[in-house]
Amino acid sequence: MLFHKLGRYIGISTVTGDFYDLSPEIYGRMESWNKKISFSRDPFSRRQAEGLAGKYGIPPEVNKLFPLPSQKTSFSADKNASRCLTDLTLNLTSSCNLRCVYCWNDHGKYSNRKFTGKQEGRFSNNAKNEYMLPETALRAVDILVASRGKDKDLVVDFYGGEPLMNLDTLRATVNYCRKNQSKWGVTFHFLLATNGTFLTPDLAKELIDQGVQIAVSIDGPMAVHDHNRPLINQKGSFNLILSNLKKMPAAVMKRLVGRTTVTPFFPDMVKLYENLRRLGFERIELFESEDACHSFLPGQEASFFSSAESYALLCKTYEKLALKYIDDVVSGNLNYSKTFFNRFFKLMQRLYYNHEVSGGCPAAKGQIAVGIDGKIYPCTSFLGVSEFELGDTTRGIDSRKFKAFIKKISRRFEYCRKDCELFSLCRSTGSCLNVNYFFSGDPAVPHKRSCELFAEKLSLAAASLAILSDKIPQRLEELFGFDPIGRRGNKLY
Questions:
Q1: What is the pTM of this model?
Q2: What one-character-per-residue DSSP string does 117-150 give?
């Protein structure tokens, strides 16, 4: 794969995963060579490819860095995957005091006429049963521990609705895990995404002291945030959250994460990043609203980058954000260790370590999500979709359903391996399984727009890493080396 980003000419070997910062002259020759090979009707042998490279004036020492892909790329491990769970998401409640413009939960209705039309009457997430009981959560933890394999680091993610509306179950879960982790020989990491309206300083300190990492959703200055994240009565929520943040002790504030969901209403990621800084956040995460998990409600299309024009705008604003990240890293104002699984930094880190960018989606294989009624799903995005139920917390994971799910999604490797030059890096995770299902009805069929955006982010990450390699070569290990595995919920303090 060859691309020109941020003033850099980058070549990525889709066989080895290595990437190289090329001169403009060599880049041009490589581009011509690559086009000749890619558009040939007949496959080139290695000797033929090397001979053609010589004709284009590509030095042998450069050519050998980009071997031809094998026709026998292996993905059998994914097809024959067994459960080795490390991550559990608990949908503590479907209730919420906000009505965010891009939310797919919609007070337990999941805003999804495509999905709910198939499952009329299937949801237990109604007004009488909107909260997960503690015993349901504890049984889910037992399933996680029993299915962990040899992994000793486990993640429990508290999700909603607004998860702080079910504090009883949240506290019971944390206490249960802490009480038993020595006996089980594991270490738990806890994640919590909250809208911040109930996050008092005392509660924040209590949860942080218990090892819960907290991300607070702030979508921008007051006008932007209140547009995106109004209260249920349609009044703004910004001042309520800001009041809580202003009371936070400095030691608590430095541990909180500011998370912004970017929409076409205000797409300037650099200004949104700077807004989180002004609010006092050291740890920052920005991500675009995703048109997945639901059908658009009337007027909701404007909240997603679904048009060609808004998609082009999104790519431009990501480029500006990458340059901002670079400046702040070089100046010492930003470090990946202070982010909250920042996805852009994660791409840079995996390129730095020459990892597969993702290793394939972990849904069902490495993570599960549990609904308030105890039903188990491959991931959060499939909550409430009966077609993808894998069992429940009373009876456990149904092996037959698990195998059927793995068989269904494993076909995506056939699509990706055949059609995508980034297969060896991406392993199909550029397109979420749920997004695939929403747009095509089949979780195995990649969503083209998602794949294009992933490739865009990957190219920006590689170019950014090339620039940082020039500017701060002695600090790269410090920047990424603290966490070579790259799990969610890094223990930073």
A1: 0.88
A2: TTSTT----STT--B--HHHHHHHHHHHHHT-TT
